[in-house]
């Protein structure tokens, strides 16, 4: 018997021995394992035997075989090359690769090319379509919940989770106008596009009190600021309001279309204008928010407008 | 020719490199050249903004804040349009960052304003409940280095042809020009003019006084920079 074959048989027996030590009776050799384990062990044994004998075959072939055929003309330091026929399988693979390359160059790459931005666009389009479909006809509770969640993400960093402006860092959204804001607007005028048109409000040098036929005074500004901030209730400041403000903002403060905004309460349309154009006033500047969808604007407008009515 | 190459390992290696690199070069180089051009609407930094950028780097803001919005819906919903290569055309060095302890700041100028930054730098937790960002109170006292910013502007204009004093097309079809002063005195004056506009929107009396006295506190420069991030 050849030494190589002997070595292969020794290796097979050794590996079977190791397998038995490792899995023992659980592997089914003791007759206790289930049939899945038995099959697995049988497969392992077959694999070991096949491997051992295939390796043996090639080792023996290397030991014994000699090459033959016609040598090519070139040789390099005495090392030559036989002019053998190209194996059929190689030729098929070679030609197939050429055909595949032509397909890939002309159709495969241009048509199927991956793009990160393309995937992003598809993802966004799919999400938007789903979002539009899901919230096409919202009831008020859903609208309110959406408004609240958008508020927490987009507005709370300045207006606070309670929408109270966090101690004067932004407008307190529970009231239409703070006293300070009314004063600022009357003193300096305003041009915040609240109606969607650039209809500016004049500063104090353009505000006549028709009751006194004179420009509005400091005392009157204080009074009317309290009156407006208080929700247009009571009597103090009411006459100044009637004389100086009502001509544009209306006797009830609810504004007039294309002329002056509602200063009695928040309205969804006004909130929408502030979101789109931003705002600059007594406290500071609010940036415009342009990154929302139409449904989100609707929800946020309604939610913010509802805060002041509570 | 192949016979010749086969006998010369060095030139064979060069030839292999050229063949392999060729496909990469024709795919990468034109795309790279195209993408690294400034996006329409990108402007070089003004003197004050650049001084603010130096403050940003000096305080290692980029250690916690990235400036790179990736093309994922969750990111673009929060921060705005994903970043494009050309938007960094005038950033030297770029401040992409790789770690987001805080949020991305690539477009912070779109949704935060001067007074918010003022409140936030003094006491971050007061505006962002639970924020772990420390207060940067010294920004209100230290003076920004306008001269270095001006020197950098001159350098990048000469070395990299950054288009100062040239009309640039904007996204809405208009033209904009970022002026660069001829002398360092003029640069200080124009930075102070910019600073006055920002200080007018701030509440800190020390900052207002410093700007009125001709000084530019670091916070003003930093806010100018942050407001320019759009």
Features:
heterodimer; A: 310 residues; mainly alpha; 3 domains; two-stranded antiparallel ribbon; elongated; B: mainly alpha; Cytochrome Bc1 Complex, Chain D, domain 2; 10 helices; 2 strands
Structural class of chain B: mainly alpha
> Which sequence of strands runs across the widest sheet of chain A?
1-2
Largest interface: A-B, 23 and 21 residues
Give the end-to-end Cα distance of chain B, rounded to a whole number of Å. 57 Å
SSE-based structural type of chain A: mainly alpha
- Give, in spatial order, the strands making up the sheet with the most strands of chain B: 1-2
What overall geometry of chain B do the principal axes of the alpha carbons give? elongated
Describe this structure in words.
The complex is a heterodimer of chains A (310) and B (230). Chain A contains ten helices and six strands. Chain A is mainly alpha-helical. A two-stranded antiparallel ribbon of chain A has the order 1-2. In chain A, strands 3-4 form a two-stranded antiparallel sheet. In chain A, helix 5 crosses helix 10 and helix 9 (268-277) crosses helix 10. Chain B has 230 residues and is mainly α. Chain B folds into two domains: 2-35, no CATH class; 47-228, Cytochrome Bc1 Complex, Chain D, domain 2, CATH 1.10.760. Chain B is 50% helix and 3% strand. In chain B, helix 3 packs across helix 10 (218-228). Chain B is elongated. The termini of chain B are far apart. The model of chain B has no long low-confidence stretch (mean pLDDT 92). Chain A binds chain B through residues 116-117, 120, 123-124, 127, 153-154, 157-158, 161, 166-167, 169-170, 283-287, 289-291, and chain B through 71-73, 76-78, 80, 82, 110-116, 119, 126-129, 201.
In short:
The complex is a heterodimer of chains A (310) and B (230). Chain A has helices at 3-23, 35-64, 88-112, 116-134, 140-159, 179-188, 218-229, 238-249, 268-277, 294-307; strands at 71-76, 79-82, 208-209, 214-215, 279-280, 285-286. Chain A is mainly alpha-helical and 310 residues long.
């Amino acid at each position: 018997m050849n030494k190589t074959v002997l070595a292969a048989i020794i290796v097979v027996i050794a590996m079977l021995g190791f397998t038995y030590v490792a899995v023992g009776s659980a592997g089914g050799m003791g007759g206790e394992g289930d049939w899945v384990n038995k099959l697995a062990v049988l497969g392992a044994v077959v694999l070991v035997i096949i491997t051992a004998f295939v390796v043996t075959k090639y080792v023996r072939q290397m030991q014994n075989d000699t090459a033959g055929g016609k040598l090519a003309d070139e040789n390099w330091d005495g090392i030559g090359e036989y002019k053998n026929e190209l194996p059929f399988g190689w030729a098929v693979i070679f030609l197939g690769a050429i055909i595949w390359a032509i397909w890939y160059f002309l159709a495969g790459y241009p048509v199927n090319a991956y793009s990160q931005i393309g995937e992003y666009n598809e993802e966004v389009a799919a999400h938007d379509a789903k979002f539009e479909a899901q919230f096409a006809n919202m009831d008020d509770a859903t609208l309110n919940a959406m408004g609240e969640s958008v508020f927490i993400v987009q507005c709370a960093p300045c207006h606070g989770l309670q929408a109270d402006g966090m101690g004067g860092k932004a407008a307190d959204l529970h009231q239409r106008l703070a006293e300070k804001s009314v004063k600022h607007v009357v003193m300096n005028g305003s041009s915040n596009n609240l109606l969607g048109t650039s209809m500016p409000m004049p500063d104090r040098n353009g505000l006549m009190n028709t009751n006194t036929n004179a420009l509005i005074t400091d005392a009157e500004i204080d009074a009317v600021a309290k009156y407006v901030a208080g929700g247009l209730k009571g009597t103090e400041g009411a006459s100044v309001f009637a004389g100086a403000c009502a001509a544009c903002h209306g006797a009830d403060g609810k504004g007039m279309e294309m002329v002056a905004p509602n200063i009695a309460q928040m309205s969804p349309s006004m909130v929408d204008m502030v979101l789109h154009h931003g705002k600059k006033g007594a406290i500071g500047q609010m940036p415009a928010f342009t990154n929302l969808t139409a449904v989100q604007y609707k929800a946020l407008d309604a939610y913010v407008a509802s805060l002041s009515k509570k | 020719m192949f016979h010749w190459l086969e006998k010369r390992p060095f030139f064979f290696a060069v030839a292999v490199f050229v063949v392999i690199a060729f496909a990469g070069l024709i795919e990468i180089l034109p795309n790279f050249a195209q993408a690294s051009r400034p996006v329409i609407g990108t402007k070089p930094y003004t003197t004050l903004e650049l001084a603010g950028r130096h403050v940003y780097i000096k305080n290692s803001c980029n250690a916690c804040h990235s400036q790179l919005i990736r093309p994922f819906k969750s990111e673009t919903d929060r921060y705005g349009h994903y970043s494009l290569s050309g938007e960094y055309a005038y950033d030297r060095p770029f401040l992409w960052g790789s770690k987001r302890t805080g949020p991305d700041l690539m477009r912070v100028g779109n949704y935060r304003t001067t007074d918010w930054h003022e409140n936030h730098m003094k006491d971050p937790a007061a505006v962002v409940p639970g924020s772990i960002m420390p207060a940067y109170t010294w920004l209100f006292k230290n003076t920004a280095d306008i001269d270095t910013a001006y020197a950098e502007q001159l350098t990048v204009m000469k070395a990299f042809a950054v288009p100062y004093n040239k009309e640039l097309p904007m996204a809405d079809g208009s033209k904009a020009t970022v002026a660069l002063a001829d002398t360092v005195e003029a640069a200080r004056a124009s930075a102070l003019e910019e600073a006055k506009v920002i200080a007018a929107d701030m509440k800190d009396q020390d900052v207002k006084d410093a700007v009125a006295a001709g000084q530019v506190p670091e916070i003003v420069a930093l806010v100018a920079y942050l407001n320019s991030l759009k």
